[in-house]
UniProtKB/TrEMBL annotation:
Species in which this protein is naturally found: Methylobacterium gnaphalii
InterPro entries linked: Acyl_CoA_acyltransferase, GNAT_dom, N-acetyltransferase
GO molecular function, one term: acyltransferase activity, transferring groups other than amino-acyl groups
UniProt keywords, alphabetically: Acyltransferase, Transferase
PANTHER family registered for this protein in UniProt: [RIBOSOMAL PROTEIN US5]-ALANINE N-ACETYLTRANSFERASE (PTHR43792:SF8), GNAT FAMILY, PUTATIVE (AFU_ORTHOLOGUE AFUA_3G00765)-RELATED-RELATED (PTHR43792)
Residues covered by the N-acetyltransferase domain: 30-183
SUPFAM superfamilies: Acyl-CoA N-acyltransferases (Nat) (SSF55729)
Nuclease in keyword set: no
Name used for this protein in its record: N-acetyltransferase GCN5
Family the entry assigns: Belongs to the acetyltransferase family. RimJ subfamily.
Length: 192
């Protein structure tokens, strides 16, 4: 899915306010603290609450493996002013509930409401269409997660409908809004 360019752990993307870099072992504590917050974990299908530190280590190892093999691109989010301090995670890769590439993300609550996730999503979308040559990118958000739906819409994603998806960490299914962005839509929005 992703080219050699992204398969080295020195790969990073810089935005106006963020560094997107490969997750590292030192990020585990921040992941446990930030992703483990109930408000964050409950909006995701995979992050348990409370979060298991050993599961966090396994997540980092798997993310690095998938990045190295080009199967996915999982990036730690950090402020440019503190590039070693993880504040969230964003990824594009396979997802059991959808065909093709899926965008997923979370951000620690101290960083909500600043437009940081919109900045990160726009950057990952560009990486996917520019570097990976992707044609269609999908995402989803719980219908109750208004902020996540707004991020996707702001970044050009179009709502495709609603369905129930498995949320293993929540112990059942949840209703999600489905979103999609095509290369043509992305290119047109950029004026290309």
């Amino acid at each position: 899915m992703f080219p050699d360019l992204t398969r080295d752990d020195v790969f990073r993307i810089e935005t106006r306010r963020l560094w997107l870099r490969w997750p590292q072992a030192r990020d585990a504590e921040a992941i446990v603290r930030l992703a483990g917050e109930r408000a964050v974990a409950e909006m995701t299908s995979q992050i348990p609450h409370p979060i298991d530190p050993l599961g966090t280590d396994a997540f980092i190892i798997e993310a690095r493996r998938a990045n190295a093999e080009g199967e996915a691109l999982t990036m730690a989010l950090a402020l440019r002013s503190a590039p070693s301090a993880l504040i969230g995670v964003i990824s594009i890769g396979p997802h059991p509930a959808v065909s093709g590439a899926h965008l997923g993300y979370w951000l620690g609550t101290p960083y909500w409401g600043m437009g940081l996730m919109s900045e990160a999503v726009a950057t990952m979308v560009e990486a996917y269409f520019s570097y990976a040559g992707g044609e269609v990118l999908r995402s989803s958000a719980m219908t109750s997660n208004v902020a996540s739906r707004r991020v996707l819409e702001k970044c050009g994603f179009v709502r495709q409908g609603c369905e129930r998806h498995a949320f293993p960490a929540r112990g059942g299914e949840r209703e999600v809004d489905l979103f999609q962005l095509t290369r043509n839509e992305w290119s047109s929005a950029r004026g290309g």
